[in-house]
Every structure is written in C-alpha cells, then in structure tokens.
Amino acid sequence: MIEPVMPTYARIDVSFERGEGAYLYTADGRRYLDFGSGIAVNLLGHSHPKLVAALQQQAGKLWHTSNLYQSEGQKEMAAKLTANCFADTVFFCNSGAEALEGCIKTARKYHSANGHPERYRVITFEGAFHGRTLATMAAGGQEKILAGFGPKTDGFDQVPFGDLKATEAAIGDQTAAILIEPIQGEGGIRPAEHGFLKGLRALCDKHGLLLLMDEVQCGMGRTGKLFAHQWSDITPDVMGVAKGIGGGFPLGAFLATEEAAKGMVAGSHGTTYGGNMLAMACGNTVIDEVLSDGFLDRVNDVANRLKQGLAGIVDRYPSVVKGIRGSGLMLGLECVVPNGDLGNRLRDHQMLTVPAGDNVLRLLPPLVVTDEDIERALSTIEMACDDLAQKAGAS
Fold first, then answer.
1. Strand 190-191 to strand 183-184: parallel, antiparallel, or no bridges (unpaired)?
2. What does each C-alpha distance from 155 to 31, 134, 318 come to in angstroms?
3. How far, in Å, CA of 123 to CA of 120, rounded?
4. Dmax over Cα atoms in the chain, in whole Å?
5. What is the pLDDT of residue 163?
6. CA gap 391, 237 in Å, rounded
7. Mean pLDDT throughout 257-262?
8. Please, are residues 216 and 43 in contact by the beta-carbon 8 Å criterion?
C-alpha cells in the first residue's frame, strides 16, 4: 500500500525537531552537525535571530496579495541584487527549477523579439542538473532523471563539460543560448575553469547568443563572492538563483540585463506565489547579511581553514578519500570508497552531508559556520575515515 506521503524520496530514517546555527536536534535530544544545510539552502544556519524576527514581523502584517499589485519588498530586494551584479532587472519565483525555466524562456523570448523565433535551442553540459520540470530535466540530460517521463523535451543540445571546441561545434542557426553551472553541484562539485567560462562568454558574443548561468546552488555567497561567476571576471546575460537566497524560505529568482529581458513584457511570464511578502522579508534579510561588512571575507577565511584540514585527511587516508573539489563553502570530497559509505559513517557520528555524482560527498555548511564547527567537522570526518580505513584493512 502506498504511503500517504508519496514515496519519491529514499528518506533517511531520522527527523529533526529544531535547529540552531550549524546544528539540528532530534526530538530525543541528539545533536547533528549540519554540513548539508538542506542542500545549500540554510545559508544563515538554523533559527538565525534576524531571519526569525523578519519572518515573525511580516507574518503579523501581511502574507500574500499576488503580483496584481505593487510590492515594496520586491522593489527593495531587486535594487540590492542589481546594485551588486551584472543585472538590471529581477523576476521573483519560488524555486530553482522555476528560476531556470525563466532563464530559458527569457532566452527564447529575446530572439523572438529580435525577429528570430527559430532560435530556441540551448546548449548545456554533461553532468548538469537544472531541475525536475520537463524542460529543466531535458536541459540536465541525465537519463536516470528523464527515464519514464516520455519524450525528452526538445530544444537542448548537450556537450562535454569544459570542452570549448565541442561547444562551438554545437552552435547552429537555431541556437539561442548557452546554459552552465559555474560549479556543478549534483554533478559532483565540478568547477568550470575560468578560461572556459571566458571562452563561453566570447562564443556568445561572437554568435549573438545569450549566456545563461545557473547559480541556484553556488550563488549567494557560497563560494566567497556573491556569485560564483564573479571569480572569472565575466558577466552572464541571464542568471537563475534560489536555494540560499531565502535562507530556508522558498524563494527563487532570475536576473537579466535590460537587453536580454527585452521580450519579457507584461503578460509574458507570471507566478501566483512568487515574491510574496513572507519570501521578501526573508530574502531581504539574507542579502543584507551576505553583503554586510566582512561577511564574505569570513566565508573565505573559514573555507580556507576547512580545505587545509581536509587536505591533511586526504593525505592520511588515501584508501578512503583522494581529493577535494570546489570553492568557498561549496566543497566536495572525492571518495575512493562509495560516497554513501562515508556519508553513512559520518551520520553515525552525528554529522550530515550530501552525496553527489562522480562519487563525491558534498560539504555545504551554513555560511555562518564557526571555527569551532569547522574543528568538529574535521575531527568527525577524520573519525569516519579512520573507521572505514580500519574496516578495509580488516577485510
């Protein structure tokens, strides 16, 4: 008999009652160090006092009126975002998949507005993950996600990640855009080389394409800059963000230049819930914190401390882990053992992580993680690696 909650997740048999900072607590009082952050969502940790206060204050005033009316919260947050990145305009939605759908629609509408509706195809990359709608599944191109959902939605051409020649070869008369994650998350914490991203920007300029960035997981300060592409000193034309942007409240957005958004006129796109008052109260609080003096410097400092400690563990336990990937506080441990084995052992020691493709285990702590939290994480990872190394030796 099917469960009342549809069984589409292979859920771990643990649930949590409350959280504080980088920790989650079960009803019976067990404390877990959370280096998953709800899959890079809880940017400011759990129960951040400013987020709690902002949400409570707004909840006592007004929750939702729809986008039929003006929204001061949207205007405020859009101004903060556009003042700190390439974009001129922002559309607020509810999730990463919606944000990426918006990016794709913006690219198609741009070419249609320019008199070329035949330009609708988007070049994407192997290992990508852009969401679970029919279009974003097709953009990601992973067979395990597409299986059973009928014909793959047309309009996407995949090439190897990091291959500039293959990318240019895939450009045709119907190509509208190139879509890439600066760091693939689900694909295994695979960063795009700075030169590759610069090469994609040059290809888009040469062929009249839009460059679309998926910063759903790597954006909002997680890499130590507000957006990951800023490390490469380039700008996209359209970008999707979500996850951490709401600090745990469902919120997504896509951002665009004025030129790229020229086709997105009244009636061209919409959402009922997107950008409601509760979401904007949380989103404005998150961006204020991330942009506050010293916040991103602190992210880089603790990230360096974590990476240095992990490097030592890799050296000491080569039979368990073989390398480190990523940037800032979006890191991955390249595993020798199955990544699930290491994740399970860490959970036995009450530390939470997130698996990824390419046999990588993701470490995605809240950006407010403390030095003490980092030390506990390193000692816990060391214990887990020691357990698995001894087990391998015994066998």
1. antiparallel
2. 47, 11, 43
3. 10
4. 68
5. 98
6. 50
7. 98
8. no
Per-residue pLDDT of 336-372, as tens digits, reads 999 999 999 999 999 999 999 999 999 999 999 999 9
The residue with tokens 């959902």 is 149
- Write the secondary structure of the chain as one string of H (helix), E (strand) and C (coil): CCCCCCCCCCCCCCCCCEEEECEEECCCCCEEEECCHHHHCCCCCECCHHHHHHHHHHHCCCCCCCCCCCCHHHHHHHHHHHCCCCCCEEEEECCHHHHHHHHHHHHHHHHHHCCCCCCCEEEEECCCCCCCCHHHHHHHCCHHHHCCCCCCCCCEEEECCCCHHHHHHHCCCCEEEEEECCEECCCCCEECCHHHHHHHHHHHHHHCCEEEEECCCCCCCCCCCCCHHHHHCCCCCEEEECHHHHECECCEEEEECCCCCCCCCCCCCCCCCCCCHHHHHHHHHHHHHHCCCCHHHHHHHHHHHHHHHHHHHHHHCCCCEEEEEEECCEEEEEECCCHHHHHHHHHHCCEECEEECCCEEEECCCCCCCHHHHHHHHHHHHHHHHHHHHHHHHC
Question: For residues 36 and 244, is the Cβ–Cβ distance under 8 A?
Answer: no
C-alpha distance across the termini of the chain, in Å: 40
Say how far apart CA 231 and CA 221 lie, in whole Å. Answer: 11
Residue 156 makes CB contacts below 8 A (sequence gap 6+) with 121, 122, 123, 124, 138, 139, 141
Enter the tokens of residue 341: 């084995």
Average pLDDT, the chain: 97
Tell me the C-alpha distance between 303 and 372, whole Å: 13
For β-strands 156-159 and 121-125, DSSP reports them as parallel
Residue with structure tokens 């990463």? 96
Phi then psi for 32, rounded to 5 degrees?
A: -115, 135
Total number of residues shown for the chain: 395
- Tokens representing residue 264 in the block: 């997105």
Inter-residue contact 311 to 326 (CB < 8 Å): no
Residue found by looking up tokens 């009922």 in the block: 272
User: What is the layout of strands, in order, in the sheet containing 89-93?
Assistant: 89-93, 252-256, 238-241, 210-214, 175-180, 121-125, 156-159
Cα 66 from chain centre: 26
Could you tell me how far CA 187 lies from the centroid of its own chain?
A: 12
Torsion of CA 207, 210, 215, 218, to 10 degrees: 20
CB atoms inside a 10 Å sphere around CB 383: 15
pTM of the model: 0.96
